Amino acid sequence: AAGDFVVAWESYDQVSPTSIFDIYAERYASNGAPLGSNFLVNTYTSGNQMLPSVAMDATGDFVVSWESYGQSGIPYQYGDVYAQRYSAGGAALGSEFLVNPKTLPSPFTIGSDTVPDVAMDATGDVVVAWQEYAAYISNSTRQRFEGIDAQRYQGETAANADVAVTGVSSDSTVTPGSSFSVSFEVVNRTAPTFETTDAYLNSFIGAVSNPTITVTLGQAATIPAGGLDWSCSGSQTTSFTCTYVGVVAAGQYSSPLIVGLVAPHTPGTISYDATVVGSSEPAFTGSVAVANPPGGSSGGGGGGFGWIELLGFASLGFLRRFGRKSAA
Length: 328
Description:
By secondary structure, the protein is mainly beta. The chain has helices at 156-160, 199-202, 307-315, and strands at 5-12, 21-28, 34-40, 49-56, 62-68, 80-86, 92-98, 110-120, 126-138, 141-153, 163-169, 173-174, 179-188, 208-209, 212-217, 230-233, 239-244, 247-248, 257-262, 268-276, 284-290. The strands form 6 sheets. It has a 6-stranded mixed β-sheet, with no helix packed on it. It has a 4-stranded antiparallel β-sheet with strand order 4-5-6-7, with no helix packed on it.
């Protein structure tokens, strides 16, 4: 609104002699003076990143979208659309994120999403539109589809207001020396909106991209934390952070993050908590009692699922709660 602006472009071999095309941007004051230096937008620098589009809100926050080749790992998908949000000062807000769906629409087996165009309103809400191509070829059968797709996102601040962590242990009481697990999920408590009848567009109103949680345990984890679409960093012992690589729609939950533990050989209590980074919601807290079974035996191998079984189920997405549609 004050006249400051940002320009984005594709640059050849600037990152390295093998990077081919990458996306760069530069911020300017209203009088045309550069604000800082030009900077690399994309973090994936293999193959081509091309055709950027950029938009800005009234306070100077902005978003860049572009097409990327080979980044998503979606089989037989030859182009994808990514985007990255920035503050008015040029600091990245979160990580770059995939805009187009993670799977090809059935029955198509070859696809490409290209030529993005992004718009941003005064309050930071975003819409990205792009060109979609999909094809199905099997012996003499050939089908082809081309169209324009779009996804909308709520502004970063509003989207994070009602994001929290929920969780549960595989057992409320475990025997000394036995294995068990703690499961965490990100819940987006933002109320779903029904301003359109298009469920695909509607699911991104109030959605949260790539939420990060901090987990603190009363004892060290025995294996690295993991789960479908989760990426963790740090020592992953008694305190670490994990990011859900994806979108949690309004009123929905992420897939579970599983942490495997082994109870100590003496009775007591193991506490744990987790919170969403940047959220005003309080931490989720819980505890597991370590106690000898009736009769005084302290042998391991408590009932219920051990963390090995739970991690296997999580990797296949089996731990989503059946029938749960809303976080209200």
